[in-house]
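Dear support,

I submitted the protein below through the web form. The confirmation email said the job was done, but the results page showed an empty box. After a refresh the structure appeared. I'm attaching both so you can tell me whether what I see now is the final result or a partial one.
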Amino acid sequence: MGLVEAWGGNAFGWFFANIIESFYNFGYAVTHPGQWLAWVPYINQDLQTPEIKESLTRFIYYGASIEFAFVLFSMFMVFTVIGLIHNGFMWGCVRRLEGFANKVGRFFAWAGLLMVLQQIMIVFMQRVFAVSEISIGFGMNFTQDVSWWSEELKLYNAMIVCLCATYTFVQGGHVRVDLVYSNVSYRTKRIIDMVGSIVFMIPAALLTWLFGWFFLWRNLVVPNPSASDALERLIGKARALRWNIETIGFSPNGFNAYFLFKILLVTFTFMVVMQAVAFFYRSYLELKEGPSSEGRFLDIDVLGDPVAERVAKIH
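What the results page shows now:
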């Protein structure tokens, strides 16, 4: 009998038992990667042995499990305690998490330019040359119908939305409704930010993850995994497990890789959780150190135009 089963008679026992077991679960996962990562070399290939199929099943199950949630929670608590003792460590976490959001966002923001250029190419090739297919490539050409390229523009838009959201948050670019926030004191603002990141950002992102995780895998493998299935039931299904990657488009010759949108959704929620942690840490440190620390280590884009910078700041 595990600790959770032994202490699970009440909410407090269940909660603390899961925290204690999370350290064992994390250590076991790190020291036994083959039990949940053996499937990686066989992506979109035949899952040759029952052991490989079971490793994929475990990965799917634990990716949205209570055990994984408590591992993340315990890591957050450990990092927070260390940060409370050594504020420099917490500032380091803030800089790295915000830096990651900035790097990813700045890179994928170029998808906007790519989207515009591809739309111009589609209009030019279709209206001027009246072609039905467009080929791109050097040596090995990639050829698809014009409608495929047109629908694929949605992917660039999704990349901007999902992968640049936390970057925009770091830059202060999201629209805020400051009916209360703008009229309260500096300390109250920091407290509102701390509470908001924990009470609103993280729960909303985790709820989206729970739906998005199984939504993704139901379009990648069969038999379809279910969020309600216990691990033992999923292991039982593993005998028949095989890849079945979604390749159905909305039109006969249209874009047929819609599973990428599901991957973007899961990636988006993961990045929001990391940014929520960074925002919580920053708000706490700015609360503790006072107004002089506001915006410390914040990597804000410089527009080079005083008027545009003022408008962006007001926004």
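Response: this is the final, complete result; the empty box was a page-load delay. Strands lie at 133-136, 142-145, 221-222, 242-243.
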